[in-house]
Amino acid sequence: MSFFSKKNKITSPVSESEKQKNRNLLISVENMILTHEKREVVHSLSFEICEGDLLCIIGENGSGKSTLISALLGLLKPTSGKIKFNRLARNQIGVLPQRSTSEADSVATVREVVTVGCLSRSGKGPFLAKDSKQLALSAMDNLGITCLADRPYRELSGGQKQKVMLARALCAAEKMLILDEPTTGLDSAATEDVYSLISRLNREGLTVVMVTHDVPSALKYSTKILRLNKDSYVFLNTEEYKKLPEAARYPESETDPYII
């Protein structure tokens, strides 16, 4: 765990439990620099993701959160530094991107939308194996949306649509789930529902990486925090992060979250 700025870097002592967890390392990032539109947006970043983590990435707009996700998914090559994968392939990662309107007018049923998530596992292009279809049913059942299976996706509420997209990502998430602002545009009840589902999936063994502007919820549900600034970063266990002066800025209210 570490704090970094251009002037200093502090690394906390590594406990025996941390040493054990490091044996289950999935991704390590070492001194990575990322450039977007010819501008350096992530500076000398180092952190790791281990099995069972729920890592929340927070920071102001323009601090490089979504750029970092693109690099983790192999969509953007680091300008310098390294991303190392250990016992993890990119096709074992399920992805829930920022909400879009791409399916808003789709006549596809919920079952069809969720089943698309099985394509990366099937290895058969558009021809889905029988077990892939069962995987989609299991994902819907896991998130409590089996009753919506035959409904057109476009007729659902915002919260229901996000559960459908989460189920689709879950179909591909053999080892890890990456979510980019999964509660944007949802009301408070739907937001809490989505966070609770993500937390449960993590407790059941799925490693989760989530970008969010909702810092109180990040502090409530995460095991690690990666705080990106425009020229520095903080990477700590959540309980350690809560001890920092900057963490005291964020109210603990769940109904009126402090959004950055």
Quickly list its features.
260 residues, alpha/beta, 8-stranded mixed sheet, 3-stranded antiparallel sheet, 9 helices, globular, disordered N terminus, disordered C terminus
Summarize the structure in words.
The chain is an alpha/beta fold and 260 residues long. It is 31% helix and 25% strand. It has nine helices and eleven strands. A hairpin with a 2-residue loop joins strand 3 (25-36) and strand 4. Helix 5 crosses helix 6. The chain is globular and about 50 Å long. The two termini are 23 Å apart. 35% of the residues are buried. The model is unreliable at 3-14 and 253-260 (pLDDT under 50).
Shape: globular
Order of helix and strand elements from N to C terminus: EEHEEEHEEHHHHEHEHEEH
Helix content: 25-40%
The radius of gyration is 19 Å
Q: What's the count of strands?
A: 11
Secondary-structure-derived class: alpha/beta
The average pLDDT score comes to: 84
End-to-end distance: 23 Å
Q: Report the portion of residues in β strands.
A: 25-35%
| Main sheet overview | 8 strands, mixed
**Tally of individual helices:** 9
Give a nutshell description of this structure.
The protein is an alpha/beta fold and 260 residues long. Helix content is 31%, strand content 25%. It has helices spanning 16-22, 65-72, 110-115, 119-122, 130-142, 158-172, 188-203, 215-221, 238-241, and strands spanning 2-4, 9-11, 25-36, 39-50, 54-59, 80-85, 93-96, 176-180, 207-211, 224-228, 233-237.
